[in-house]
Amino acid sequence: MNESIERLNSVRKRIEQACIASGRRPDEVSLLAVSKWHSTEKITELNKLGVLSFGENHVQEALQKQRVLAGLDLQWHFIGTLQSNKTRAIAENFQWVQSVDRKKTLERLAAQRPDSMGPLNVCLQVNIDLEPQKAGALPEEVSRLAALAHGLENIKLRGLMALPKVSTDPGEQHESFRKVKALFETLKNEGFDIDTLSMGMSSDLEIAIAEGSTMVRIGTDLFGHRES
Question: What does the pLDDT average to over 190-196?
Answer without folding.
Answer: 98
